[in-house]
Design a protein that fits this description.
Layout (H helix, E strand, L loop, with lengths): L3 E7 L6 E8 L6 E5 L21 E3 L3 H13 L11 E3 L8 H21 L3 H10 L6
Antiparallel strand pairs: 1-2, 2-3, 3-5, 4-5
């Protein structure tokens, strides 16, 4: 049985309400954090990049997982075809608990909101938000 949690995070500046699906993929892979919300990266600047490397998100390539997530979306009353791309947070290390996954989702959300408003790199934004006490990671 696959463990999962569907949850939302609102950024501290109220810019974004992001829906996540946290999925436990087992002891070898750990938790994965799927981003179910569409995010407008260009709302403050048309030149803001939304490339996957810049915004630290990856696209799910496992067809079985894509079907499961898109079925979950359809069960919530959303239009989602099995060929629709599904993105997840790019995280360097294995995420070993749901609590850690929630903290990573918060961190990613806050950095994303700052990036949308001000630009910069995730690497340069993270210490700024950490110093302000907005994020812990």
């Amino acid at each position: 049985m696959m463990l999962f949690e569907n949850n939302y995070y609102r950024t501290s500046d109220y810019l974004l309400d992001i829906e996540f699906l946290f999925v436990d993929l087992g002891t070898l892979t750990g938790w994965r954090i799927y981003i179910l919300s569409d995010i407008d990266y260009k709302q403050f600047s048309a030149s803001r990049s939304d490339s996957i490397t810049t915004i630290h998100r990856l696209t799910e390539s496992n067809s079985d997982m894509l079907r499961k997530i898109n079925a979950f979306q359809r069960n919530k009353g959303r239009a989602a075809s099995d060929s629709a791309p599904v993105h997840y947070i790019c995280w360097k290390y294995k995420i070993d608990s749901l609590e850690r996954a929630r903290e990573i989702a918060k961190t990613w959300s806050e950095i994303t909101a700052y990036y949308i408003r001000n630009g910069g790199s995730f690497k340069s934004i993270q210490p700024k938000l950490k110093r302000k006490g907005i994020i812990r990671l």
